[in-house]
């Protein structure tokens, strides 16, 4: 596993705009608690002072993705969702509180990450805590028949060397999907806020990526997805829509470059 020996905030030109109102350092100096502004609510999130797997804090892209999901809430409501690279669990907690979304968190096979997400759930009134899957990309997934019809992630493309492993896990989740019995997914029609019309595939992957690495490195992930028979569409605001090629459905409207 590649270890990032830098401050993640240094990767963003606008890092100072991250929505942090208050910072409280844990008495043991192992964690820092910060109050973060999400659309319509404030969350108290405990973050690691340092974590070798970079699960220690919120990335600026999380807030942008939260805004985007609020604007396109009809695409996620009623879905059974798995978040990859949950980190602190803040985005999943926000979606649970905002839309009562059936969401499971996931991150590296690391007990500290799971325990911290559980702590943050309890600190923000989510009881019982959100279900969690410990999974290191590229390794055998704990469930042989995943039943999540929507996978989401925010800012998970930092480690270029991990792209093959990420694509392997993503391909498994999308291509091995087994729906729950009598599971009904609401149809998605015109999205008036964006002027787009989309039939959201089942299953599908929505990913927000706020570019902070070279385009050549970034393109390796999208090319790898195409080579794995996954079709990629940029649907605006640095949000990407990925699904198995054989399950592609028509998408119309403006696609930002």
Structure commentary:
The protein has 257 residues and is of the alpha/beta class. Helices cover 24% and strands 25% of the residues. It has 5 helices and 13 strands. The protein has a 7-stranded mixed sheet. Strand 2 and strand 3 form a beta hairpin. Helix 4 runs parallel beside helix 5. The protein is globular. The two termini are 32 Å apart. The N terminus and C terminus are likely disordered.
Short description:
α4 packs parallel to α5.
Furnish the topology, listing elements before pairings:
Layout lengths: L19 E6 L5 E8 L2 E8 L11 H12 L8 E4 L6 H10 L2 E6 L3 H13 L8 E3 L15 E5 L8 H13 L14 E2 L4 E3 L5 E5 L6 H13 L2 E5 L4 E6 L6 E2 L5
Parallel strand pairs: 4-5, 4-7, 5-6, 7-10
Antiparallel strand pairs: 1-2, 2-3, 8-9, 9-13, 10-12, 11-12
